[in-house]
Amino acid sequence: MIASINRTKEILNKYDLQAKKRFGQNFLIDSNIVSKIVNTANIDENTVVIEIGPGIGAMTELLAKAAKRVICFEIDSDMVNIINNEIINEGARNVEIKEIDFLKVNLKDYNLEGEKVIVVSNLPYYITTPIIFKLLNEEVIKEIYVMVQDEVARRLVGLPKTKDYGSLSVMIKYLATAKFEFKVGRNCFFPAPNVDSGIVSIKRTKNDYNLKNEPKFLKFVQSIFEMRRKTLINNLLKDYDYKRNELEEKIASITGDINCRAESLSLDEIIKIYQILGLDK
Ligand code: SAM
Question: Which secondary structure element, helix H or strand E, spans residue 198, and what is its range?
């Protein structure tokens, strides 16, 4: 299936459907962009690709040509029906489709141990962040290539002291390296959303921090960014059982500034603060 406006309308008409807003359905209609995404993703004949939300299959066929296996997770039964009829029954035998909310998927059920697993997805915008958190927690996934709206793309690669820097940027920096690959204009979708999008790649990396309790660290990161306008110390006083003067002494020893905010701190500084507060156990 070649992604184009005509083909997309033809398929929607054939099945008597309209794009569903509640499922974040904005279908890709630019075949050059589809090729660019598949070429950017590091796929070879040994790769298992997970596609979240294949929709009517704008990317699925090309992914299937490049990969060993493509596992699609789609919440909308109408889309599942289309993928079965138009993609799988038309010959793409290495494609599987599961009708499920991806946030409820347990990847352990899919025999992925020892495989080279990557995610390629034009994500539904209304649950982009929870999906990315889930993907980061799935160690079997080594690389992620996602289409996200511009604002999320900037947060994923955000740097300290910018308005885009937040808990998501810090978590990504801790677990992976993220890169903004290229912009995708709103007119490459049907229906066209109100904002442009971009492709971001996220590659899992090992770090040397040797933290004992990673989940606790990731919660710590979320809590220090919770109230962005509060100082770091005020955010800490809210969630942890410390005395102000104790915090002032420890924070000053690392940042030199007791009034700093989380958004000015590098990942290294955040880790040092987490450790000096004795939280890593
Ligand atoms: N991949 C297609 C494309 O690029 O044209 C469709 C992308 S559209 C932005 C998002 C897709 O995700 C839709 O097909 C939608 O039904 C599906 N979706 C929405 N929420 C989902 C969820 N929780 N789990 C799985 N799929 C979901």
Answer: strand 197-204
**Cα(190) to centroid(ligand 1), Å:** 13
Q: Are 122 and 59 in contact (CB under 8 A)?
A: yes
Strands, E assignment, 32-166? 47-52, 69-74, 95-99, 116-122, 141-149
Q: Is the CB of 124 under 6 A from ligand 1?
A: yes
What share of the chain in percent tops pLDDT 70?
A: 100
- Cα torsion for 246, 249, 255, 260, to the nearest 10°? 60
Answer yes or no: are the C-beta atoms of 211 and 171 closer than 8 Å.
Answer: no
Cα angle: 67, vertex 68, 70; to 5 degrees:
70
**Ligand 1 pocket, 122 CB below 6 A?**
yes
Closest listed residue to residue 138, CA positions, set 117, 120, 155: 117
- Contacts for 30 with CB less than 8 Å, ≥ 6 apart: 3, 4, 184, 188
**How far apart are the C-alpha atoms of 1 and 278, rounded to whole Å?**
56
| pLDDT at residue 1 is higher than 70 | no
pTM above 0.90, yes or no: yes
CA–centroid distance, residue 169 to ligand 1 (Å):
24
CA of 132 to the centre of ligand 1 (A): 14
Give the position, in ligand 1's atom list, of the atom nearest the Cα of 131: 23
Q: What are the tokens at 184? A: 């995708």
Centroid of ligand 1 to alpha carbon of 65 (angstroms): 21
Q: Is the pLDDT of residue 228 over 90?
A: no
